[in-house]
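Slack export, channel: ligand-projects

TW: morning all. Re-posting the request from yesterday since it got buried. We need the structure predicted with the small molecule present, not the apo form. The ligand is adenosine-5'-triphosphate; the SMILES is in the block with the sequence. No rush, but it would help planning for next week.
GE: picking it up
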Amino acid sequence: MSDLIEKNANNQRLPLIPLRGIVLFPYMVVPLIIGRENSVKAVTYAFEKKLPLFLASQKKKDVETPEPGDIYEIGCVADIIEVINLTNGMVRVLAEGVSRAQVKKFINNPEFYEVEVEELKSFSRDEKELEALLRTLKEKFGEYISMNPKIPKDAITTVAAIDDSEKLIDAVMANIPSQVPDKQAVLEENDMNERLIKTLSLISSEIEVLKIEDDINKRVQDRLEKMQKRYFLNEQLKEIRKELDEGESDDETIKDLKAKAKKIKMPEDVKEKFDKEMERLTKIPNMSPEFTVLHTYLEWLADMPWGVYTQDNKDISIAEDTLEKEHFGLKEAKERILDFIAIRQLNPKSKGPIICLVGPPGTGKTSLSKSVAHALNRNFVRFSLGGVRDEAEIRGHRRTYVGAMPGKIIQMMKKANSMNPVFLLDEIDKMSMDFRGDPSAALLEVLDPEQNKAFNDHYFSVDFDLSYVFFITTANNLYNIPVPLLDRMEIIEIPGYTEIEKKEIAKQFLIPKQKEENGLGGFGISFAEQSLLDIVRYYTKEAGVRSLERHIGKIIRKVAREKIKKDIKSVKITPQKIEKYLGLRKYDYTSMQKMPRPGVIAGLAWTEAGGDVLYIESSLFKGKGNLILTGKLGDVMKESAQIAYSYAKNLAPKYGIKQESFDKYDMHIHVPEGAIPKDGPSAGVSMVSSIVSTLSQLPARNDIAMTGEVTLKGDVLPIGGLREKLLAAKRGGIFNVIIPKKNEKDVKEMEEQILANLNIYYVESVDQVLDKVLMNQAKD
Ligand SMILES: Nc1ncnc2c1ncn2[C@@H]1O[C@H](COP(=O)(O)OP(=O)(O)OP(=O)(O)O)[C@@H](O)[C@H]1O
Ligand SMILES: [Mg+2]
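GE: finished. pasting the full token output, ligand included:
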């Protein structure tokens, strides 16, 4: 390849322009934008003197004023084809590489870089190898061009025509984006074989990079295509649905729903929500489960009594009559309810407290609430909280939950058919709590006048106004009601009934009701007064009248059967017939012990079911002075037994009890009817009496019952539930009772009927109790 080497070998003195980021090769035409002052001067000088330029690359691109050491010594001599002056003092130069050359000397020129260069000569050590390398490079370059979309494909034919290895290398270099040092290494190589090898390695690595790029592109493309496909399919699906829905836009169910919604007065925000969801519903195919879910929801919205208010009865005397007509007695409860009604009447917006009716089972709490609705002429709904343990039962599940429904409050409001019903939250004390959240917290929101204007059910997700609702709650026991709830309620006690009251309730209400229910409305069936008293005394043991009602029902059904069999006109239920209808007596009227015995005391207890007479027994066994307690006693009751035992020791001398009775014997106290849990401190007096009676062997009077808490000093403290306890004593046939002096004021407030025939002893100390109950031989 001698023609390559036969270049002009003369040293030339040329202006130098340092290049940034590119390496110029012979045969390469490049446009250069030149801005550095001395470079511009160099160009001007060369252009005027018609000299070529020496173009060499900077070792580091970002050096602004390079020293000779910052510039590669080997570069390219280039002819200036064209110079264009740009506006801002810069020039654009079109230059064409001519030959490789090396700096021999830097000339000291303050204006621009000037160098003396010597042209470099290439040589080949192996012509055969050169040929082989040339072909390989052509092939690789062809491959590269075919892979690189930025190079026009017809460049392949141009390349195929190049036979000069130097030209080929220059063509390759002009087209690959390799780094400056790599390209510089190719430029500097004089050995043609070596230069081809270096070029080959550069282009091979570029091909690798292209392949990797291609691979990446393909993967990106794939992903894009998948996304696009999804997008298109979705769009198609939408179109198909639209098409289908258009056909079914007069779907009956949707039509009905729309018609229903048109008729009601939804509040603004509800209407908005309804319309929005309705819009969505029309777009969902009606076969899909989503349709059903949304449709059910909209139905709920449309079924609520939005804007429906019943007209209240404003006449308080009519209200009074209604309450009187439907329930016997309950004087105080009725009075307080009427007060409430009056206040609400005067100020319909008044957020009076919620009524809570508290009392033993069967005393008419639930049915009295119903009467309140009648008295006010409002609709009535009842929701029993017994066993509710999940917040969602009250406030519903979110719609995302499978099978979600609104909570009971909303369900009941739908049933109520008006925004202002009487809403009974029955048995609020029977609610419990578990891991699914505290229902009482949700209930608080329902009952709190500050919050219930905008009650939020999870399912509904629109606010519902509960502020016009008349809430009534009921409970058997206040202790089980969470304090924050209790705090918002006005307690009205519904006490137990006396025998006389029960007899009256039966006569005036239960018998007519049962006759009606059993289809004997017009039939002449009458109960003798004594029969009713007998049923109360011997077949029931309750504070309320539920069991009484059941027994009356039983008799009436039996009579109904007889009537069908024998065609009788009327029946009178005499006391003699009771046993025939109801079987043997269940209870002794008097639970009084037959004889006075040591250690047996009648205590009066209060339970959820009303009052009761409990017999407390004690006896001594050889032992070490331990106190043994049986009969399912609660902690408070156990403590009060301890106190009683300790106090009994103080009394020992007075009753002639020897110390060894405490040291060498165990005291066993038992409260029978073991299955019923008992608690409270009010059995204190009964326990001391029983212990002292056992130790002293003085029998206790069997016709006295007692109640009272005892302190370690022997004082008697007041107790609760007195009314129920007095009723229980009478029910048990005991007419003498010992009660704390401090309870005297409660007795003063009681009706004559309860106190009739009762002999009450008020006491302040245990001594006074023992004086009354122990049958001291000396005294009696
Ligand atoms: N004073 C009364 N006058 C007329 N009927 C009464 C009276 N008290 C109770 N009743 C009747 O006794 C039955 C039981 O009453 P209700 O179910 O209201 O009791 P409750 O107090 O709610 O009991 P629970 O605490 O067990 O729920 C009903 O049929 C009711 O009408
Ligand atoms: Mg009830």
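GE: first-pass observations. Residues 518 and 557 are 7 Å apart (CA to CA). The pocket of magnesium ion (ligand 2) is lined by residues 365-366, 426, 474 (CB under 6 Å).
TW: perfect, thank you
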